[in-house]
Amino acid sequence: MYRSGIGYDAHRFAEGRPLVLGGVEIPHSQGLLAHSDGDVAIHALCDALLGASGQGDIGRHFPDNDPEFHRVDSRILLREVVSRIHGLNMTVVNVDLTIVAQRPKLAPHIRVMRERLAEDLQVDEGRVNVKATTTEGMGFAGRGEGISSYAVAMLRYLE
Ligand code: MG
């Protein structure tokens, strides 16, 4: 039996923070404001995985007022979500992410994002797809106020 889930997240830009997307630190003049490292792509992915496994959302598992998660590397959260999925006797079939950002250019970083996400998901890279798009200048992403991300995940129950 298969189960699908969807995730969405958005964070605003702030000065003096690193920009981390898909587990990769990307050179940029600003980073994303958040209690964690602000990795909006991993947050959307965690929500897709939690949704597919019927476990609510990222805020329920990792509250943003919990000091334990202050500036936490979001890959740690992703690995924890994967471990909970395995605990339910489920495995990841595939995931697909879209990062919405006017800048910086993300294309040079997609390959490493896939590698890192596949490692955390414990699947082959062929099961992890990462895309990036602009909004042609429209909306908050287009104005460079922040970055958003969508994710879908497919899980399968192990026999
Ligand atoms: Mg978030």
Helix-strand string = EEEEHHHEHEHE
The parts where pLDDT drops under 50 for at least 5 residues are none
Tally of separate helices: 5
Number of strands: 7
Structural class of the helices, strands and pairings? alpha+beta
Instruction: Kindly report the average pLDDT value.
Output: 96
Strand content: 25-35%
The helix fraction, in percent, is 25-40%
The hetero molecules present are: magnesium ion
Which strands sit side by side, in order, in the main sheet?
4-1-7-5-6
The biggest sheet amounts to: 5 strands, mixed
What is the CA-CA span between the terminal residues?
9 Å
Radius of gyration: 15 Å
Global morphology: globular
Describe the structure in your own words.
There is one protein chain. With 159 residues, this protein is α+β, with helices and mostly antiparallel strands. It is 30% helix and 31% strand. The protein is built from 5 helices and 7 strands. Strand 5, helix 4 and strand 6 (128-133) form a beta-alpha-beta unit. The longest helix is centred in the middle third of the chain and has 14 residues, at 74-87. The mean pLDDT is 96. Magnesium ion binds at residues 9, 11, 34, 40, 43.
Features:
159 residues; five-stranded mixed beta sheet; binds magnesium ion; globular; alpha+beta; 31% strand; two-stranded antiparallel ribbon
Nutshell version of this structure?
By secondary structure, the protein is α+β, with helices and mostly antiparallel strands. It has helices at residues 40-52, 58-61, 74-87, 110-121, 139-142; strands at 2-14, 19-21, 24-26, 31-32, 90-100, 128-133, 146-157. It contains 5 helices and 7 strands; from the N terminus they run ββββαααβαβαβ.
